[in-house]
Amino acid sequence: MTSGGTLPVALDAMGGDHAPGAIVQGAREAVDEFGFDVVLVGPPDLVGDTLGLELVACSEVIGMEDDPASSVRRKKDSSLVRAAELVRDGKACAMVSAGNTGATMASALLRMGRIRGVSRPCIATPLPRPGKTPTVLCDAGANAECTPEMLVQFAQMAGAFAASRFGIEAPLVGLLSIGEEPTKGTPLVKEAHKLLADPASGVRFFGNVEGRDLIGAPVDVVVTDGFTGNVALKTLEGSLRFMFETITKIIGTDEATKAAGDVLFPHLLPIASDLDPDSHGGAMLLGLEGVCVISHGSSSARAIKNALHVGHDLAAHGVVDALRAAVGHS
Fold first, then answer.
1. pLDDT band, very low/low/confident/very high, at 5 (cuts 50, 70, 90)
2. Which band of pLDDT confidence, cut at 50, 70 and 90, is reported for residue 107?
3. Which residues contact 24 (CB under 8 A, 6 or more apart)?
4. Which of helix, strand or coil describes residue 81?
5. Residues 251 and 306 in one domain
6. Total number of domains in the chain
7. Is 123 in contact with 104 (CB distance < 8 Å)?
8. CATH number where 22 lies
């Protein structure tokens, strides 16, 4: 079950639009390329060919349309719940799912538990910063309503995540707002600005950043509430997809654009790879007593392979210990 003295990563084989085929294929590629082990979790009759990987059998699946909280309580033998239990029981170092985000969060929270002192777990999503390490957006959708104190804790945890994941020493934190001045923004943002600017926060605070700063941000972490963060993230994904699809349609429509494409494509492809969500694998749910990586619902085999790598890497680098220390409970 293990290789190199390390625990495997538990993978929800039934999570995502392309499950189980792309999920199992991504797991096989991760094992072959990175050398750590992956254990699949799912109903054997639905998973089918495991490509030689170990399968932990269960009898239920939580679908994308299922209510997160009630389904986790009702479907105790689901692939999501069993994957979280493998981490809780010390049989896996991390769990990964591209399935129902709310149910993934609920499974991980209920089975792993939260770090003492953490008010609410939050989602940390890497945003591309071509030529540099990604910027971490937090919260990207776990908590629609927040307090200023919660945003400070998100900043503390996201900073610890950025240090563990990307090796950034003393990450610089920005607060998402509608202007750079401390007086701009909602009452939540203005109060959070005061708390983050206080040295007692333990955060290296840059100040406010705006939506236009999210790509190529001047900071390592952008903190916001989950509602704003999720809208910002989806807007970015849609805009980038539209931009590259438009460029692809234009190039090659005649001899002139074909010639331009021959010159531009070698320069555009590395940028496109940096901006592709599949390159970054997934987001981490911060604040739990375990590693949980959430990949997007349309994940390809490549996205799953990279999400597994992220989960294994975070566990190996002791990210949970770093999060405990960040919130003052080391």
1. very low
2. very high
3. 13, 40, 47, 48, 49, 50, 51, 53
4. helix
5. no
6. 2
7. no
8. 3.40.718.10
Tell me the average pLDDT across 142-151.
96
Domain of 215 in residue numbering reads as: 127-279
| DSSP state at residue 17 | T
Paired tokens of 265: 């494509």
181 and 312 in a single domain? The answer is no
**How far is residue 184's CA from residue 263's CA, in Å, rounded to a whole number?**
44
Residue with tokens 């079950």: 1
Q: Which residue has the tokens 């929800």?
A: 12
Residue pLDDT, tens place only, 49-82: 999 999 999 999 999 889 988 999 999 999 999 9
At 222, give phi and psi (nearest 5°): -115, 120
pLDDT for the residue numbered 278:
67
145, 274: one domain: yes
Beta partners for residue 90, in sequence order: none
Residue bearing tokens 């494509």 = 265
Whether residue 174 is found in the same domain as residue 72: no
Among 128-142, 247-261, 264-278, name the one with the lowest average pLDDT.
Answer: 264-278
Contact between 149 and 195 under an 8 Å Cβ cutoff? The reply is: yes
- In the predicted model, is pLDDT for residue 161 greater than 50? yes
Map residue 250 onto helix, strand or coil: helix
Task: Enter the tokens of residue 212.
Answer: 């236009």
Tokens of 87: 């981490």
Show the CA angle centred on residue 62, arms to residues 57 and 67, nearest 5°.
155
